[in-house]
Protein backbone atom coordinates (compact mmCIF):
# COMPACT_ATOMS: atom_id res chain seq x y z
CA UNK A 1 0.00 0.00 0.00
CA UNK A 2 2.91 2.32 -0.81
CA UNK A 3 0.73 5.15 -2.15
CA UNK A 4 -0.48 5.86 1.40
CA UNK A 5 2.62 5.01 3.36
CA UNK A 6 2.44 8.14 5.45
CA UNK A 7 -1.30 7.88 5.93
CA UNK A 8 -3.62 10.85 5.87
CA UNK A 9 -7.00 9.29 5.03
CA UNK A 10 -10.16 9.57 7.08
CA UNK A 11 -9.33 6.73 9.46
CA UNK A 12 -6.33 8.54 10.99
CA UNK A 13 -2.71 9.01 10.02
CA UNK A 14 -1.84 5.30 9.89
CA UNK A 15 -5.14 3.88 8.68
CA UNK A 16 -4.61 1.45 5.84
CA UNK A 17 -1.02 2.60 5.35
CA UNK A 18 2.33 0.81 5.59
CA UNK A 19 5.15 1.10 8.09
CA UNK A 20 8.41 0.74 6.17
CA UNK A 21 10.45 3.27 8.14
CA UNK A 22 9.85 5.37 11.25
CA UNK A 23 10.75 8.43 9.16
CA UNK A 24 7.23 8.33 7.67
CA UNK A 25 5.57 9.02 11.04
CA UNK A 26 4.99 12.37 12.73
CA UNK A 27 5.70 13.04 16.40
CA UNK A 28 1.97 13.35 17.09
CA UNK A 29 1.29 9.98 15.48
CA UNK A 30 4.04 8.27 17.50
CA UNK A 31 2.80 9.96 20.70
CA UNK A 32 -0.68 8.62 20.04
CA UNK A 33 0.73 5.19 19.26
CA UNK A 34 2.71 5.11 22.52
CA UNK A 35 -0.34 6.21 24.51
CA UNK A 36 -2.43 3.46 22.88
CA UNK A 37 0.30 0.93 23.65
CA UNK A 38 0.29 1.95 27.32
CA UNK A 39 -3.52 1.64 27.43
CA UNK A 40 -3.33 -1.81 25.85
CA UNK A 41 -0.65 -2.89 28.27
CA UNK A 42 -3.07 -2.08 31.10
CA UNK A 43 -6.07 -3.79 29.47
CA UNK A 44 -6.48 -5.49 26.11
CA UNK A 45 -10.27 -5.83 26.64
CA UNK A 46 -11.34 -2.86 24.51
CA UNK A 47 -9.02 -3.94 21.67
CA UNK A 48 -10.01 -7.61 21.46
CA UNK A 49 -11.73 -7.23 18.06
CA UNK A 50 -9.34 -4.83 16.31
CA UNK A 51 -8.26 -7.55 13.85
CA UNK A 52 -11.40 -9.69 13.96
CA UNK A 53 -11.83 -11.42 10.61
CA UNK A 54 -8.30 -10.53 9.45
CA UNK A 55 -5.46 -12.88 8.65
CA UNK A 56 -1.87 -11.70 8.59
CA UNK A 57 1.14 -13.26 6.95
CA UNK A 58 4.51 -13.07 8.70
CA UNK A 59 7.09 -13.52 5.97
CA UNK A 60 10.60 -14.00 7.36
CA UNK A 61 13.80 -14.33 5.32
CA UNK A 62 15.84 -14.25 8.56
CA UNK A 63 15.47 -15.90 11.99
CA UNK A 64 13.53 -14.29 14.82
CA UNK A 65 12.39 -14.88 18.38
CA UNK A 66 10.96 -11.57 19.58
CA UNK A 67 9.46 -10.26 16.34
CA UNK A 68 7.80 -13.52 15.37
CA UNK A 69 6.36 -14.32 18.80
CA UNK A 70 5.31 -10.76 19.63
CA UNK A 71 3.43 -10.48 16.33
CA UNK A 72 1.86 -13.95 16.60
CA UNK A 73 0.71 -13.50 20.20
CA UNK A 74 -0.17 -9.84 19.64
CA UNK A 75 -2.32 -10.51 16.57
CA UNK A 76 -4.20 -13.23 18.52
CA UNK A 77 -4.84 -10.72 21.35
CA UNK A 78 -6.43 -8.40 18.78
CA UNK A 79 -8.70 -11.16 17.47
CA UNK A 80 -6.76 -11.80 14.25
CA UNK A 81 -5.01 -14.83 12.84
CA UNK A 82 -1.32 -14.98 11.92
CA UNK A 83 0.41 -17.37 9.53
CA UNK A 84 4.20 -17.65 9.81
CA UNK A 85 6.05 -18.31 6.57
CA UNK A 86 9.70 -19.23 6.96
CA UNK A 87 11.51 -17.85 3.94
CA UNK A 88 15.04 -18.52 5.16
CA UNK A 89 15.65 -21.30 2.63
CA UNK A 90 14.82 -19.11 -0.36
CA UNK A 91 14.94 -15.32 -0.75
CA UNK A 92 11.78 -13.52 -1.80
CA UNK A 93 11.84 -12.92 -5.54
CA UNK A 94 13.61 -16.17 -6.39
CA UNK A 95 10.62 -18.44 -7.09
CA UNK A 96 8.44 -15.64 -8.43
CA UNK A 97 8.74 -11.88 -8.53
CA UNK A 98 8.23 -9.92 -5.31
CA UNK A 99 5.46 -8.00 -7.06
CA UNK A 100 3.59 -11.19 -7.95
CA UNK A 101 4.08 -12.33 -4.37
CA UNK A 102 2.40 -9.19 -3.05
CA UNK A 103 -0.42 -9.38 -5.61
CA UNK A 104 -1.21 -12.94 -4.55
CA UNK A 105 -0.98 -12.33 -0.81
CA UNK A 106 -3.39 -9.40 -0.82
CA UNK A 107 -6.11 -11.73 -2.13
CA UNK A 108 -6.01 -13.78 1.12
CA UNK A 109 -4.64 -11.67 3.94
CA UNK A 110 -5.32 -8.23 5.40
CA UNK A 111 -1.76 -7.57 6.54
CA UNK A 112 1.80 -8.44 5.51
CA UNK A 113 4.63 -8.37 8.05
CA UNK A 114 7.98 -8.94 6.35
CA UNK A 115 11.55 -9.40 7.60
CA UNK A 116 13.86 -9.15 4.61
CA UNK A 117 17.49 -8.69 3.66
CA UNK A 118 17.05 -5.73 1.33
CA UNK A 119 14.85 -2.71 2.05
CA UNK A 120 13.90 -2.59 -1.65
CA UNK A 121 12.12 -5.95 -1.23
CA UNK A 122 9.79 -4.76 1.52
CA UNK A 123 9.21 -1.54 -0.45
CA UNK A 124 8.35 -3.57 -3.56
CA UNK A 125 5.91 -5.73 -1.57
CA UNK A 126 4.24 -2.58 -0.28
CA UNK A 127 4.01 -1.09 -3.76
CA UNK A 128 2.51 -4.31 -5.15
CA UNK A 129 -0.17 -5.03 -2.55
CA UNK A 130 -3.23 -3.10 -1.45
CA UNK A 131 -2.98 -4.31 2.17
CA UNK A 132 -0.73 -2.73 4.82
CA UNK A 133 2.88 -3.89 4.92
CA UNK A 134 5.01 -3.68 8.08
CA UNK A 135 8.80 -3.79 7.91
CA UNK A 136 9.84 -6.32 10.56
CA UNK A 137 13.57 -5.53 9.98
CA UNK A 138 15.61 -5.03 6.85
CA UNK A 139 19.22 -4.07 6.15
CA UNK A 140 18.46 -0.39 6.79
CA UNK A 141 15.77 -0.14 9.46
CA UNK A 142 13.98 -1.82 12.35
CA UNK A 143 11.04 0.52 12.99
CA UNK A 144 9.01 -1.82 15.25
CA UNK A 145 12.03 -2.16 17.52
CA UNK A 146 12.40 1.61 17.82
CA UNK A 147 8.70 2.02 18.67
CA UNK A 148 9.11 -0.51 21.51
CA UNK A 149 12.29 1.22 22.65
CA UNK A 150 10.68 4.65 22.80
CA UNK A 151 7.73 3.10 24.64
CA UNK A 152 10.19 1.67 27.17
CA UNK A 153 11.95 5.03 27.56
CA UNK A 154 8.65 6.80 28.02
CA UNK A 155 7.69 4.33 30.75
CA UNK A 156 11.02 4.74 32.52
CA UNK A 157 11.41 8.51 32.23
CA UNK A 158 7.84 9.76 31.74
CA UNK A 159 8.73 11.48 28.47
CA UNK A 160 11.13 10.97 25.57
CA UNK A 161 11.68 14.65 24.83
CA UNK A 162 15.05 15.89 26.06
CA UNK A 163 16.51 12.42 26.74
CA UNK A 164 20.09 11.69 25.73
CA UNK A 165 20.54 8.20 24.27
CA UNK A 166 24.05 6.88 23.65
CA UNK A 167 24.01 4.15 21.01
CA UNK A 168 27.37 2.35 21.20
CA UNK A 169 28.59 -0.13 18.58
CA UNK A 170 27.65 -0.78 14.98
CA UNK A 171 25.80 2.01 13.13
CA UNK A 172 23.21 -0.45 11.78
CA UNK A 173 19.47 -0.87 11.11
CA UNK A 174 18.57 -0.55 14.82
CA UNK A 175 20.71 2.57 15.17
CA UNK A 176 19.06 4.13 12.10
CA UNK A 177 15.52 3.66 13.40
CA UNK A 178 16.52 4.97 16.84
CA UNK A 179 17.99 8.05 15.13
CA UNK A 180 14.73 8.62 13.26
CA UNK A 181 12.77 8.33 16.52
CA UNK A 182 15.04 10.76 18.38
CA UNK A 183 14.78 13.34 15.61
CA UNK A 184 10.99 13.06 15.51
CA UNK A 185 10.34 12.86 19.26
CA UNK A 186 12.84 15.45 20.51
CA UNK A 187 15.56 13.21 21.99
CA UNK A 188 19.29 13.40 21.25
CA UNK A 189 20.92 10.26 19.88
CA UNK A 190 24.69 10.01 20.19
CA UNK A 191 25.91 7.30 17.80
CA UNK A 192 29.30 6.09 19.06
CA UNK A 193 30.83 3.68 16.57
CA UNK A 194 34.21 2.46 15.33
CA UNK A 195 35.58 4.28 12.28
CA UNK A 196 33.92 3.00 9.13
CA UNK A 197 30.86 1.68 11.01
CA UNK A 198 29.04 5.03 11.40
CA UNK A 199 25.32 5.25 10.58
CA UNK A 200 24.52 6.00 6.94
CA UNK A 201 25.03 9.56 5.74
CA UNK A 202 21.63 9.42 4.05
CA UNK A 203 19.89 8.56 7.32
CA UNK A 204 21.80 11.38 9.02
CA UNK A 205 20.57 13.86 6.39
CA UNK A 206 17.05 12.53 6.76
CA UNK A 207 17.25 12.99 10.55
CA UNK A 208 18.31 16.61 10.13
CA UNK A 209 15.15 17.34 8.18
CA UNK A 210 12.98 15.26 10.51
CA UNK A 211 14.30 17.14 13.55
CA UNK A 212 13.73 20.45 11.79
CA UNK A 213 10.19 19.50 10.75
CA UNK A 214 9.20 18.20 14.17
CA UNK A 215 10.59 21.24 16.01
CA UNK A 216 10.89 19.32 19.29
CA UNK A 217 14.61 19.95 19.69
CA UNK A 218 15.75 16.42 18.79
CA UNK A 219 18.90 15.54 16.92
CA UNK A 220 22.00 13.40 16.81
CA UNK A 221 25.77 13.37 17.13
CA UNK A 222 28.04 10.88 15.37
CA UNK A 223 31.41 10.18 16.97
CA UNK A 224 34.06 7.48 17.33
CA UNK A 225 34.81 8.39 20.96
CA UNK A 226 33.20 6.19 23.68
CA UNK A 227 33.72 9.02 26.21
CA UNK A 228 30.58 10.54 24.68
CA UNK A 229 28.41 8.20 26.77
CA UNK A 230 28.80 10.90 29.43
CA UNK A 231 25.48 12.27 30.59
CA UNK A 232 23.46 9.61 28.80
CA UNK A 233 20.04 8.63 30.14
CA UNK A 234 20.23 5.39 28.18
CA UNK A 235 23.14 3.37 26.84
CA UNK A 236 22.05 1.17 23.93
CA UNK A 237 23.99 -1.46 22.04
CA UNK A 238 23.37 -4.18 19.45
CA UNK A 239 25.37 -7.05 17.94
CA UNK A 240 28.54 -6.13 16.09
CA UNK A 241 27.64 -8.43 13.19
CA UNK A 242 24.03 -8.26 11.97
CA UNK A 243 22.14 -11.17 10.43
CA UNK A 244 23.32 -11.86 6.92
CA UNK A 245 26.62 -9.95 7.30
CA UNK A 246 29.96 -11.68 6.87
CA UNK A 247 31.89 -12.32 10.10
CA UNK A 248 34.38 -9.57 10.92
CA UNK A 249 38.07 -10.00 10.29
CA UNK A 250 40.37 -10.04 13.33
CA UNK A 251 41.31 -6.39 12.64
CA UNK A 252 37.66 -5.36 12.47
CA UNK A 253 36.85 -7.26 15.69
CA UNK A 254 39.68 -5.46 17.43
CA UNK A 255 38.23 -2.09 16.40
CA UNK A 256 34.98 -2.96 18.17
CA UNK A 257 36.56 -3.96 21.49
CA UNK A 258 36.66 -0.46 22.97
CA UNK A 259 32.93 -0.13 22.23
CA UNK A 260 31.95 -3.00 24.54
CA UNK A 261 29.31 -1.91 27.07
CA UNK A 262 30.84 -3.04 30.36
CA UNK A 263 30.65 -1.76 33.92
CA UNK A 264 33.38 0.85 33.29
CA UNK A 265 31.53 2.32 30.29
CA UNK A 266 28.18 2.33 32.11
CA UNK A 267 29.82 4.16 35.02
CA UNK A 268 30.64 7.02 32.62
CA UNK A 269 26.98 7.48 31.69
CA UNK A 270 24.56 9.41 33.87
CA UNK A 271 23.65 8.00 37.33
CA UNK A 272 20.08 7.24 36.21
CA UNK A 273 21.16 5.63 32.92
CA UNK A 274 19.35 2.51 31.79
CA UNK A 275 20.93 -0.16 29.62
CA UNK A 276 19.13 -1.14 26.40
CA UNK A 277 19.61 -3.84 23.77
CA UNK A 278 17.21 -5.00 21.07
CA UNK A 279 18.38 -8.62 21.60
CA UNK A 280 19.58 -11.17 20.70
CA UNK A 281 22.80 -10.27 22.53
CA UNK A 282 26.22 -11.77 22.13
CA UNK A 283 27.18 -11.73 25.81
CA UNK A 284 30.88 -11.11 26.27
CA UNK A 285 31.11 -9.17 22.99
CA UNK A 286 29.04 -5.96 22.73
CA UNK A 287 27.83 -6.30 26.36
CA UNK A 288 28.96 -8.14 29.47
CA UNK A 289 26.75 -10.13 31.87
CA UNK A 290 27.36 -7.60 34.65
CA UNK A 291 25.56 -4.93 32.61
CA UNK A 292 22.81 -6.85 30.82
CA UNK A 293 21.86 -8.61 34.08
CA UNK A 294 22.16 -5.46 36.23
CA UNK A 295 19.33 -3.46 37.82
CA UNK A 296 19.88 -0.78 35.13
CA UNK A 297 19.01 -3.19 32.32
CA UNK A 298 15.58 -2.83 30.68
CA UNK A 299 16.14 -5.33 27.87
CA UNK A 300 13.24 -7.63 28.76
CA UNK A 301 10.90 -4.64 29.11
CA UNK A 302 11.92 -3.73 25.56
CA UNK A 303 11.13 -7.29 24.45
CA UNK A 304 7.70 -7.22 26.11
CA UNK A 305 6.99 -3.78 24.70
CA UNK A 306 7.55 -5.04 21.16
CA UNK A 307 4.09 -6.60 21.39
CA UNK A 308 2.30 -3.59 22.89
CA UNK A 309 3.90 -1.10 20.47
CA UNK A 310 3.14 -3.30 17.44
CA UNK A 311 -0.43 -3.87 18.63
CA UNK A 312 -0.94 -0.13 18.99
CA UNK A 313 0.38 0.27 15.46
CA UNK A 314 -2.09 -2.37 14.24
CA UNK A 315 -4.98 -0.68 16.05
CA UNK A 316 -4.12 2.56 14.22
CA UNK A 317 -3.76 0.76 10.88
CA UNK A 318 -7.15 -0.97 11.36
CA UNK A 319 -9.25 1.72 13.07
CA UNK A 320 -12.59 0.17 11.98
CA UNK A 321 -11.98 -2.94 14.03
CA UNK A 322 -13.03 -1.57 17.42
N1 LIG B 1 14.89 -7.63 18.48
C1 LIG B 1 14.47 -8.48 17.55
O1 LIG B 1 13.99 -8.10 16.48
O2 LIG B 1 14.60 -9.80 17.89
P1 LIG B 1 14.37 -11.02 16.90
O3 LIG B 1 15.44 -10.98 15.86
O4 LIG B 1 14.47 -12.24 17.78
O5 LIG B 1 13.02 -10.88 16.28
N1 LIG C 1 21.13 -5.49 13.92
C1 LIG C 1 20.58 -6.78 14.21
C2 LIG C 1 19.26 -6.64 14.89
C3 LIG C 1 18.61 -7.92 15.28
C4 LIG C 1 17.27 -7.73 15.92
C5 LIG C 1 20.43 -7.57 12.93
O1 LIG C 1 20.02 -7.00 11.92
O2 LIG C 1 20.76 -8.75 12.94
What structural keywords apply?
single chain; 322 residues; alpha/beta; Rossmann fold; five-stranded parallel beta sheet; four-stranded parallel beta sheet; 11 helices; 39% helix; disordered N terminus; binds phosphoric acid mono(formamide)ester; binds norvaline
Strand content: 5-15%
Shape: globular
Main-sheet strand order equals 7-6-5-8-9
The CATH architecture name of the largest domain reads 3-Layer(aba) Sandwich
CATH homologous superfamily label of the largest domain: Aspartate/ornithine carbamoyltransferase
What is the typical, i.e. mean, pLDDT? Answer: 95
Overall number of strands: 9
CATH class of the largest domain: Alpha Beta
Oligomer: single chain
**The biggest beta sheet, please?**
5 strands, parallel
Rg, alpha carbons: 19 Å
Indicate the CATH topology of the largest domain.
Answer: Rossmann fold
Structural class: alpha/beta
Q: How do the helices and strands follow one another from N- to C-terminus?
A: HEHEHEHEHEHEHEEHHEHH
Number of H/I helices: 11
Tally of domains: 2
Question: What would your notes on this structure say?
Answer:
- With 322 residues, this protein is α/β, with parallel strands linked by helices.
- The protein has two domains: 22-141 and 306-316, 3-Layer(aba) Sandwich (Rossmann fold), CATH 3.40.50.1370; 143-302, Aspartate/ornithine carbamoyltransferase (Rossmann fold), CATH 3.40.50.1370.
- It contains eleven helices and nine strands.
- Helix 6 links the parallel strand 5 and strand 6.
- The longest helix has 19 residues, at 299-317.
- It starts with 26 loop residues before the first helix and ends in a 5-residue tail after the last helix.
- Bound molecules: phosphoric acid mono(formamide)ester (CP) and norvaline.
- Phosphoric acid mono(formamide)ester binds next to helix 2.
- Phosphoric acid mono(formamide)ester binds at residues 64-67, 137, 145, 278-280.
